[in-house]
Amino acid sequence: EIHEALLDGRVDFAVHSLKDLETELPPGIVLACCMAREDARDVLILAPHCGPADPADPFAAIPPGGVVGTSSVRRAAQLLHRRPDLTITLIRGNVQTRLNKVKSAQMDATLLALAGLRRLGLAHEAAAILDPELMVPAAGQGIVGITVRAGDTELHDLLSGIEDPDAAAVSRAERALLAALDGSCRTPIGGHAEIRADGTLRLVGLVASEDGTFLLKRAIVGAPEDAARLGRELGRELRRDSPAAIFTG
User: Fold this and answer.
1) What is the spatial distance between Cα 89 and Cα 110, in angstroms, rounded to a whole number?
2) Chain centroid to CA 115
3) Tell me, which fold does domain 2-39+139-247 have in CATH?
4) How does strand 67-69 pair with strand 87-89?
5) Residue 57 DSSP code
6) Do residues 90 and 72 lie in contact, with contact meaning Cβ atoms separated by under 8 Å?
7) Per-domain residue ranges of the chain
8) Which residue stretches of the chain are H helix?
9) pLDDT tens digits for 14-44?
């Protein structure tokens, strides 16, 4: 509906959570701007009976056979890969609803995006902030993207003045990775890129089975101007070395 409103002129630009924006946009629509990235990491939320989380091994705080609520196959697969004893249950609703379900011990834990919690002033609810190497985030997580009509060059040029170069580079890498993998919404895929202190871009990509029994994670490093190529290259490599059934489920 947002794309349709943009194409027929009812709106001039659209603001998206980039992780929810499809990699292949409808003809006539382009991603014109990426805002500075919020923290891309996921967090672990624990029920009161679980006690504090050890930063070195945060998932150990979840009791054996515990129940974790999430609607993300990416998060579930990575968690099950490390803790196959856990039970994953579907959880929906807004952030506060999810937090309340954990606080009332309807489940032992859940996983959320730190960016969303910070924007709601709820970052203190996190029992542990998960390193991207431990829990690879979703591609585009924490980035706000703005789409415009492809022919609206004036607006495109205006938006370039507020684009964050680092966010633009990492988003190109992560979205190219997704496009190369071409998984369904039920395929656990993660992608996280960062600009390192030496100016290079490092991209981590992940593919897994829903039950976590298969998980493949690799990284690639290169120049930020080669972000899209790096994403495509890593995506093709991950797809080549993963079971074909993962992408057809």
Assistant:
1) 10
2) 11
3) Double Stranded RNA Binding Domain (3.30.160)
4) parallel
5) B
6) no
7) 2-39+139-247, 42-129
8) 2-7, 73-82, 95-103, 114-119, 153-160, 165-181, 227-240
9) 999 999 999 999 999 999 999 999 999 999 9
Task: Give domain 42-129's CATH number out of 3.40.190.10, 2.40.50.1020, 3.20.20.100, 3.40.50.2000.
Answer: 3.40.190.10
Q: SS3 string of 72-115?
A: CHHHHHHHHHHCCCCEEECCCCCHHHHHHHHHCCCCCEEEEEHH
In angstroms, the Cα distances linking 169 to 35, 85, 88 are 11, 38, 34
Q: From CA 23, how far away is CA 190, in angstroms rounded?
A: 14
> Which one-letter DSSP state was computed for residue 146?
E
215-222 β-sheet, strand order = 189-195, 201-208, 215-222
Please report how many Cα atoms fall inside a 13 Å half-sphere around the Cα of residue 246, on the Cβ side.
26
Active site residues: 20
Q: In what order do the strands lie in the sheet with 42-46?
A: 87-89, 67-69, 109-113, 42-46, 128-129
CA–CA distance from 217 to each of 56, 174, 239, 242 (Å)?
20, 14, 11, 10
Amino acid making up residue 149: R
Tokens matching residue 97: 């609803």
Which amino acid makes up residue 179?
A: A
| Residue 161 near residue 217 (C-beta atoms within 8 A) | no
- Amino acid of residue 96: Q
Joined tokens for residue 227: 């972000």
Q: How does pLDDT run across 107-160, given as a tens digit for each residue?
A: 999 999 999 999 999 999 999 999 999 999 999 999 999 999 999 999 999 999
